[in-house]
Amino acid sequence: xxxxxxxxxxxxxxxxxxxxxxxxxxxxxxxxxxxxxxxxxxxxxxxxxxxxxxxxxxxxxxxxxxxxxxxxxxxxxxxxxxxxxxxxxxxxxxxxxxxxxxxxxxxxxxxxxxxxxxxxxxxxxxxxxxxxxxxxxxxxxxxxxxxxxxxxxxxxxxxxxxxxxxxxxxxxxx
Length: 174
Ligand code: S3P
Hints:
Number of domains: 1
CATH superfamily: P-loop containing nucleotide triphosphate hydrolases
Bound molecules: shikimate-3-phosphate
CATH topology: Rossmann fold
């Protein structure tokens, strides 16, 4: 099945919400180009996000993230965004101006159960701190998203079907 996008479709949501899995499934099932901002940044900097956080700090990472998002904003692709992409107003504006944004919504309990390997996620080292971050970001996710998909109890395939039907409704996919 082939689905052709005419603008970027950004997937946002907290760490572990399923953004990368959904992007990969859309890429393989609908033959859509898909990019993961963390992977794109890792290719540019030649190290893992966790190492870069440890060496250069969060703000340096956020600057890389904005650079990456700006570059991707010109491509009609599924963009799986790092969970903190909504932190910078500049990023929220780039997404708003260049495409559509879907929030993959999940409860903190579901997310915590899904995240097994915390070593790759510098901002998920401590569960209580991660929960605070999750709560603080909710309003940012919701104000940035054009639509919200409640992922609880849904398979990746079901979530992808909702993404595709949203994209068709919006007229951004052929
Ligand atoms: C972050 C989420 C991570 C990654 C970095 C920071 C965050 O991406 O960008 O560790 O601030 O929430 P995922 O959401 O893909 O885990």
